[in-house]
Amino acid sequence: MHNAITTDIAFCQQLLKDNQLVAIPTETVYGLAANAFDEVAVSKIFEMKGRPLFNPLIVHIHDIAQLQELATDIPDKAMQLAKEFWPGALTLILPKRDTVPAIITGGKPTVGVRMPNHKLTLELLKGLPFPLAAPSANPFTKVSPTSAQHVAHYFGDRIPAILDGGPCEVGLESTIVGFEGENSIVYRKGGISIEAIEAVAGKVTLITENETAPQAPGMLLKHYSPRTPLIISNDIQTSIEINTHKRIGILSFYSDAFLGAEIIKVLSPTRNLEEAAKTLFATLHELDTLNLDLIIAERFPEEGLGSSINDRLFRAQN
Ligand code: TXA
Ligand code: MG
User: Which is nearest to 55 in space by CA: 116, 136, 114?
Assistant: First the structure.
């Protein structure tokens, strides 16, 4: 089942040129990539993920100059953010050029673009005559993959190749920023904190979840979901006591001092939010394999990446 995992970049480039799908490592999560300018190749992504066609995809580039072939009327603030954070966990929503296929943008007049910060994928992109469209490499609404093994677990050898770049360094999807006049709008909290974005772009507007008409599917209320029921708690010990007779897994920020759980997973004993973000999804994947009755996740401090982690936990509740 795992024979699709490879480190052969030339092999992956050839597959992509042949309009096949390749799973690619990034610093945020693994992506399911195809030639952004080939509608047939891109349609395979939607099919494999079971993703509704109205959900637009992010286009991945390796050079800021490529923005010109994808977007037009790029605001100054967008350029400032790109220069500050690329390559990195930031996606910019920009007015699209006519040449960008509608299947990528879900028929919207804008396109999402990002330069990922991963050595293998930057090398892969440099050897291709086109940018790569890539959503996270998970079935629609499931927890995003942060290792090649997670991708293989989801799709097995239905993907011709999974480029193995090791575990993701950031572990949360990119922060998505768009622009309306002078305003910067955050559509998805992610691997770069709001505080860091605001230090460059000034005050931003947060457009929070909207279940019926999401601007971004990452905003769908139910998303990032494990199979096991998950609740968020401000007081883990009390939540355990309310749920006696259940096999409980704990997802805790820094403490393991709880009684009555089957398993306790601590994301960062030193209370470091970056470290916690890095292993959040891998830990959810792992807890989800244990046939637990309930996952109790601790609410994180609402600052820096803690705010992005809370966002994902909130959507993972089921
Ligand atoms: O970190 C990431 O962003 C990862 C890696 C692989 O780059 N990709 C990722 O893709 O998370 P995906 O498809 O799972 O999430 C992309 C999000 C969706 O919520 C989508 O709606 C939003 O980006 N998006 C893309 N283009 C957009 C547009 N033109 N307007 C509004 N939202 C857009
Ligand atoms: Mg996704």
Answer: 136
* Domain annotation covers residue 244: yes
Q: Closest ligand 1 atom to the C-alpha of 214?
A: 21
pLDDT tens digits, one per residue of 22-60:
999 999 999 999 999 999 999 999 999 999 999 999 999
CATH code, 260: 3.40.50.11030
| Domains held by the chain: number | 2
In order, the DSSP letters of 300-316 are PPSSTHHHHHHHHHHHH
Band (pLDDT 50/70/90 cuts) for residue 216 is low
Ligand that lies nearest to the alpha carbon of residue 104, given by its number in the listed order: 1
> Do 191 and 96 share a structural domain?
yes
**CA of residue 246 to ligand 2 center, whole Å:** 30
Residue 90 CA, ligand 1 centroid: distance in Å: 10
Q: Across residues 252-279, what is the average pLDDT?
A: 98
Same domain, 199 and 237: no
Place of tokens 């994808």: 70
Q: Are residues 34 and 99 in the same domain?
A: yes
Residue 213's pLDDT band (cuts 50, 70, 90) = very low
Tokens encoding 97: 């050029």
Query: Is residue 66 included in any domain, yes or no?
Result: yes
Q: Is the beta carbon of 93 within 6 A of some atom in ligand 1?
A: yes
Q: How far is the CA of 287 from the centre of ligand 1 (A)?
A: 26
CB 164 within 8 Å of CB 25: yes
Give, for ligand 1, the residue of 58, 90, 115, 305 to mutate: max count of ligand atoms closer than 8 Å to Cβ: 58
Structural domain span for residue 154: 5-206
pTM: 0.95
- Classify residue 274: in a domain, yes or no: yes
Q: Are residues 264 and 306 in the same domain?
A: yes
- Is 222 among the domain residues? no
Give the pLDDT of residue 217: 52
**215 pLDDT higher than 90:** no
Q: Examine the fold and report which residue of 206, 239, 271 is the final residue of a domain before the chain moves on.
A: 206
Closest listed ligand to the CA of 24: 1
**193 Cβ contact partners less than 8 Å away, ≥ 6 residues apart:** 175, 303, 304, 305, 307, 308
Q: Please check whether residue 297 is in contact with residue 232, taking contact to mean a CB–CB distance below 8 angstroms.
A: yes
